[in-house]
Write a structure and sequence with these properties.
- The chain is an all-alpha fold.
- It has 3 domains: 180 residues, MFS general substrate transporter like domains (Growth Hormone, Chain: A); 53 residues; 240 residues, Growth Hormone, Chain: A (Up-down Bundle).
- Helix 2 runs antiparallel to helix 9, helix 2 packs antiparallel against helix 16 and helix 16 runs antiparallel to helix 18.
- The chain is globular, with a radius of gyration of 23 Å.
- This is MFS transporter.
Length: 507
């Protein structure tokens, strides 16, 4: 079990670490391959492929068995990594990143679903700390590892580094993981998969392009919204008629599953918004370097790790979990409101305390949402439940980055125009997010105005995050504490427990 879990955590790290590592290598990649105007597509193609393939991987695991499907996703991810490292121009890199993203969609779902198969929900809490630890390690270590690899080995090795890790995961899972083989005669719901892919693609493109590549009211964005809505409505309609639907709508009859989907969406919305704007605030206002701004996220990520471990242990020992969504929602609202109070005078210690409060809230919610969602469905729908929860979190992150980003950019540009006049408007005309080099070149007055503008922008973004987190808190109130499967006998069941033990011993 420990070897399997180690392999699963390595696979999970592959999916989470990749974008963090690539981010620091992007300037070098553009310098060699060119194609600066297509830079955003290197990330967008990966995100699109991951989001669109996530539900399909989950359904394939339910139909044909987790092990083979999971190994296939690892192989596809590694093939995409090799091809990306060999890319000769930006077009090839974008295409190969999409291949990589298709594999990544199966990595996260596979890990969650296999853990759901192997470990009863009551015991699953023990391993939450491992998953939270992998997430924290990826967020902190990714930029550092990416910078080191790019400087010493070249940017191509930011992709090739996946090969040894992936090989270890492949060998360990092939040799040690034993799950029952399945072979379903049901046909894959190709129409449902196509409609869902079109709908998700349109949503992600709207959130990625809106306010940056195109104005929110532009014809392109309006057309994408229309296509996305039409595809998703058609998808829901078809799922009620498909013989083997990609996303069985009956799982949403469980109130707890629906609530966990809502909470997961909001966790993604808040978490990725926070990890985007906090380093920007630290670099622009508090004067931190790019490397140090990653390390300065430690209060949030450390608090998230510790709380996730505590929540898992308490859930395992008591079988009770409703307190964690409630507490997590409340802490998230308070922490985000505190972050909205930061200004140009806020010290690193103060901002660290505020971040820790947010981390405590996320630690209470991150893995509990998956645990309760899996506990709310039958074993045959474990993959679908895992992929749906992962998908809602991914979509939440897309919406969070887009909406909080639009609010941030608008506020920065307004404050720069107020404080620095025409110069301020000129400075932020191309982008409201200046890098350290551009910031250093500004006159003192413009730099001071920009610091106030970033403070105002983060105030608006985090205030919006706090308002959205209130929805998670309200959803947590309605969670029903259904006993976790595999929780063992209740008080007074001693006779039944003894009988089960005798049967187990005989078997």
């Amino acid at each position: 079990m420990r070897v399997v879990l180690l392999a699963l955590m390595i696979a999970m790290m592959l999916a989470m670490l990749d974008n963090m590592i690539i981010g620091t290598a992007m300037p070098t990649i553009v310098g060699e391959l060119g194609g600066l105007e297509h830079l955003s597509w290197v990330v967008t193609s990966y995100t699109l492929a991951t989001a669109a393939s996530t539900p399909i991987w989950g359904k394939l695991g339910d139909l044909y068995g987790r092990k083979g499907v999971f190994l296939s996703s690892i192989v596809l991810f590694l093939i995409g990594s090799v091809l990306s490292g060999m890319a000769q121009d930006m077009g090839q890199l974008i295409a190969f990143r999409a291949v990589q993203g298709l594999g990544a969609g199966g990595l996260m779902v596979g890990v969650m679903a296999i853990i759901g198969d192997l470990i009863p929900p009551r015991e699953r809490g023990k391993y939450q700390g491992m998953m939270a630890g992998v997430m924290a390690l990826a967020m902190i270590g990714g930029p550092l590892v990416g910078g080191t690899i790019t400087d010493h080995w070249g940017w191509r090795w930011t992709f090739y580094i996946n090969l040894p890790l992936g090989a270890v995961a492949l060998v360990a899972i092939s040799a040690v993981l034993h799950l029952p083989k399945k072979r379903s005669e049901a046909r894959i719901d190709y129409l449902g998969a196509a409609l869902l892919t079109v709908g998700i693609t349109a949503i992600v493109l709207v959130t990625t392009w809106g306010g940056t590549e195109y104005a929110w009211t532009s014809a392109v964005i309006m057309e994408l919204i229309g296509i996305g809505v039409a595809a998703l409505v058609g998808f829901v309609f078809w799922q009620t008629r498909a013989a083997e639907p990609i996303l069985p709508l009956h799982i949403f009859r469980s109130l707890n599953f629906t609530l966990m989907s809502v909470i997961g969406f909001i966790v993604g919305f808040v978490m990725f918004g926070a990890t985007l704007f906090l380093p920007l605030y630290q670099q622009s206002v508090q004067g931190a370097s790019a490397t140090n701004s990653g390390l300065l996220l430690l209060p949030m990520l450390g608090a998230m790790l510790v709380t996730s471990m505590v929540a898992g242990r308490v859930t395992t020992q008591t079988g009770r979990y409703k307190v964690f969504p409630l507490l997590g929602g409340a802490l998230l609202v308070v922490g985000l409101y505190l972050l909205s109070l930061m200004d140009t005078e806020t010290s690193r210690l103060t901002s660290g305390v505020y971040m820790a409060v947010v981390g405590l809230g996320m630690g209470c919610l991150m893995q509990i949402t998956m645990l309760v969602a899996q506990n709310s469905v039958e074993m045959k729908d474990m993959g679908v439940a895992s992929s749906s929860t992962t998908l809602f979190r991914t979509l939440g992150s897309s919406f969070g980055v887009a909406i909080m980003g639009a609010l941030f950019n608008h506020r920065v540009q307004d404050v720069m125009a107020e404080r620095a006049g025409a110069l301020g408007s000129q400075v932020t005309e191309q982008s409201a997010q200046l890098d350290a080099v551009s910031l250093a070149k500004l006159p003192e007055a413009a730099r001071e105005a920009y610091q106030h503008a970033v403070s105002a922008g983060t105030h608006g973004a985090f205030l919006l995050g706090a308002a959205v987190a209130v929805v998670a808190l309200i959803a947590a109130v309605f969670v029903k504490e259904v006993p976790l499967k595999g929780a063992g006998p209740q008080k007074g069941d001693a006779g039944a427990a003894e009988a089960r033990a005798q049967v187990s011993e005989a078997v």
